[in-house]
UniProtKB/TrEMBL annotation, chain A:
Keywords of the record: ATP-binding, Cell membrane, Membrane, Nucleotide-binding, Transport
Protein name according to UniProt: ABC transporter ATP-binding protein
Source organism (scientific name): Micromonospora globbae
Membrane topology reported for the UniProt record: Peripheral membrane protein
Family to which this protein belongs: Belongs to the ABC transporter superfamily.
From TrEMBL, chain B:
Domain ABC transporter intervals: 16-268
Family, as annotated: Belongs to the ABC transporter superfamily.
Gene Ontology terms, MF aspect: ATP binding
SUPFAM superfamilies: P-loop containing nucleoside triphosphate hydrolases
Alphabetized InterPro entries for the sequence: AAA+_ATPase, ABC_transp_ATP-bind, ABC_transporter-like_ATP-bd, ABC_transporter-like_CS, Oligopep_ABC_C, P-loop_NTPase
Taxonomic source organism: Micromonospora globbae
Lineage of the species this protein comes from: Bacteria, Bacillati, Actinomycetota, Actinomycetes, Micromonosporales
Pfam families (UniProt xref): ABC_tran, oligo_HPY
UniProt cross-references to PANTHER family, sorted A to Z: D,D-DIPEPTIDE TRANSPORT ATP-BINDING PROTEIN DDPF-RELATED, TRANSPORT ATP-BINDING PROTEIN
Signal peptide annotation: none
Coiled coil: none
Gene3D superfamilies: P-loop containing nucleotide triphosphate hydrolases
Protein's name according to its UniProt entry: Dipeptide ABC transporter ATP-binding protein
Nucleotide-binding recorded as keyword: yes
Length: 345, 343
């Protein structure tokens, strides 16, 4: 790949013909009356066919905004894409006219949201909502679309699909609603599914069911998936690679196993040490001091430096670039090597 | 801040005892002639004891009645039946001055730090409001100083006393809620999902604060949460609720290492562990279906519709939450046994 020196794409080699989906150096800001919030500050990641990329971050880290930019559903104003590219099969979505983007949305890249109750329309039966895209986009007849909707509901394992197709969203439980939304997303056989906190609103037993379903569907339908979450536990089970975001940047990018074994960014390390674990007893909870930054006043240098235990003068002065570590991972920390060695101990 | 008078009292003695508490919310039909057609059995016969200085964790999925239980204990709901004894008095029968006195000893921290603080009051007014209701807790002249002390205790800047809630982050707001709960120097604090609205990096700060305050003031916590890892971390004893009942209760060790109720075992196995290496070794029990409606719970054992061990006896006979042969802690299962893989 010719531009590999410009954009290091870590953790996996570029396949023939480029990545399925690639975000390149994306900058997004929210222009509000109180000032400009720099929400995304140079995010690059990629996704290949059939793999699962987890994007991990806390509220305000920009993980959802990146996904909305990919889908082209940013609220603008206030959101404004300042620069960057979003390449899908080599074409830049950001420069495409809305008409062409609509063809990609749903059919090539589909998205499911955290809160299924507010994402579904309360006054239409679920079957109608699932089949809506089939009628309007594929020009299917009502009868055909209905038949396909039942198939889709079976696919996402909603029991007695034929009987429940006329039910309204409020008649379903939280887990079943999430399944309805997954069925809607799958209607046009997308190649990429973006799941934005798909299980955050659900109970643990139901969460396990939905994560299993997503993993099965991804495998059976050969989809690629971007899983956006704040939950380090959920990620560990399903993802191939992880991109950790902080203050609108990707601070660490690695395959799942090496990241959990030895995080190479102080933020990731802090996160892993601050969660209580079910399988560990008498654990002392480490904390990350301070608060996430205000995006209107992002600290100079490394945005994590006011909270970082490894902080030195260089961190205040110089923005760290992605440091490529020996095993093909990257960490945006001046002391990445040191942090990783500390974690591995 | 000085320790409450209770510090001389014996750690480990029972401070609150709850006996067979029931709360049914009526479902009514008709506009003009309302009649009751059923009841949502939110809490259906819950008993436990809280000891001085301990943390009792209450876990369960949404709709299991854990928050209703908290509201009952705070007397924000009136129970259908049952008793709760605090300081030797029946909490549910108390009224007037007696109720006010009992309430002073038991305070609450709410889940959502965004809606549980009045946006039009300053932090000083919010934390000082308990003193308006209980004027003898702090003389008028010293209240401001007391509020500043409280801010300091929970790790906030005492100079921020005149700020409004929107000027604080989620974690800081939760600290304000904790300061308010501490104002009257209670012995018991009921925490209803105190960290579930917070980001992971902030969650640990608040948990550590709660633990530190417990050591300092000898507090007893009832810690309600759906996150089993957090509950394990903070609790001495744990009660597992399902559809309005406690299905298993025991020490942290008994519940997390030697659980005998199938529901507890399934719940524990479903918790995602943040370690890809361990995950494949774990034996996850997949529960099918959803929690039944508390308006129409299954006969006999309420968990039987999702239980892989269910037999005929489970439909006809309700298992009591009593000590079973499998392990000497109370478990409400006819076939209670320690999961071999977990042992």
């Amino acid at each position: 790949m010719t531009n590999s020196t410009v954009q290091p794409t870590p953790a996996s080699a570029t396949p023939e013909g480029g990545h399925l989906l690639e975000v390149r150096d994306l900058y997004v800001e929210f222009r509000t009356s109180e000032g400009v919030a720099k929400v995304i500050n140079g995010v690059s990641y990629h996704l290949d066919a059939g793999e699962t990329l987890a994007v991990l971050g806390e509220s305000g880290s920009g993980k959802s905004v990146t996904a909305q930019a990919i889908m082209g559903i940013l609220d603008s104003p206030p959101a404004h894409v300042r620069s960057g590219q979003i390449l899908y099969q080599g074409r830049d979505l950001l420069t495409q006219p809305e008409e062409q983007r609509r063809q990609v949305r749903g059919k090539e890249i589909a998205m499911i949201f955290q809160d299924a109750l507010s994402a579904l329309n309360p006054v239409f039966p679920v079957g109608w909502q699932i089949s809506e895209t089939l009628r309007t986009r594929e020009g299917m007849s009502r009868a055909d679309a209905r038949r396909r909707a039942i198939e889709l509901m079976d696919l996402v394992k909603i029991p007695a699909a034929e009987r429940r197709i006329g039910d309204y969203p409020h008649q379903f439980s939280g887990g079943m609603r999430q399944r309805v939304m997954i069925a809607m997303a799958l209607a046009l056989n997308p190649k990429v599914l973006i799941a934005d906190e798909p299980t955050t609103a659900l109970d643990v037993t139901v969460q396990a069911q939905i994560m299993d379903l997503l993993a099965d569907l991804r495998r059976d339908l050969g989809m690629a998936m971007i899983l956006i979450t704040h939950d380090l536990g959920v990620v560990a089970g399903v993802a191939d690679r992880i991109a950790v975001m902080y203050a609108g940047r990707i601070v660490e990018h690695a395959d799942v196993r090496s990241l959990y074994r030895a995080p190479a960014h102080p933020y990731t390390k802090g996160l892993l040490e601050s969660i209580p674990r079910l399988d560990v007893r008498g654990q002392e909870l480490a904390t990350i001091r301070g608060l996430p930054p205000n995006l209107m006043r992002i600290p100079s240098g490394c945005p994590f430096h006011p909270r970082c235990p490894y902080v030195q003068q260089v961190c205040v002065d110089v923005v760290p670039h992605d440091l490529v570590l020996g095993d093909g991972r990257t960490s945006a920390c001046h002391f990445a090597q040191e942090v990783r060695d500390d974690s591995a101990r | 801040m000085t320790a409450p008078a209770s510090s001389t009292k014996v750690r480990g003695e029972t401070i609150l005892s709850v006996d067979n508490v029931v709360k049914h919310f009526p479902i009514s039909q008709g506009v003009l002639f309302k009649k009751q057609v059923g009841a949502v059995k939110a809490v259906d016969g819950v008993s436990f004891e809280l000891r001085r200085g301990e943390t009792l964790g209450v876990v369960g999925e949404s709709g299991c009645g854990k928050s209703t239980l908290a509201r009952l204990l705070m007397r924000l709901e009136t129970p259908t039946s049952g008793r709760a004894t605090l300081e030797g008095r029946d909490l549910f029968k108390a009224s007037g001055a007696e109720l006010r006195r009992l309430r002073r000893n038991m305070q609450m921290v709410m889940q959502d730090p965004y809606t549980s603080l009045n946006p039009r009051m300053t932090v000083g007014d919010i934390i000082g409001e308990p003193f308006e209701i209980h004027p003898d807790a702090a003389p008028r002249g010293s209240r401001r100083k007391r509020v500043q002390e409280l801010l300091d205790v929970v790790g906030l800047n005492p100079e921020h006393i005149n700020r409004y809630p929107h000027q604080f982050s989620g974690g800081q707001r939760q600290r304000i809620g904790i300061a308010r709960a501490l104002a009257l120097r209670p012995e018991i604090i009921v925490c209803d999902e105190p960290v579930s609205a917070l980001d992971v990096s902030i969650q640990a700060q608040v948990i550590n604060l709660l633990e530190q305050l417990q050591d300092e003031f000898g507090l007893s916590y009832i810690f309600i949460a759906h996150d089993l890892s957090v509950v394990r971390h903070i609790s001495d004893r744990v009660a597992v609720m399902y559809l309005g009942k406690i299905v298993e209760i025991g020490t942290e060790d008994e519940i997390y290492e030697r659980a005998t109720h199938p529901y507890t075992q399934a719940l524990l196995s479903a918790v995602p562990v943040p370690d890809p290496e361990v995950r494949h070794e774990r034996n996850i029990i997949r529960l099918t279906g959803d929690v039944p409606s508390p308006a129409d719970p299954p006969s006999g054992c309420r968990f039987r519709t999702r239980c892989w061990k269910a037999q005929e006896v489970c439909a006809t006979e309700e298992p009591l939450t009593v000590a079973r042969a499998a392990d000497p802690h109370p478990s409400a299962c006819h076939f209670a046994e320690v999961r071999p893989a977990a042992a």
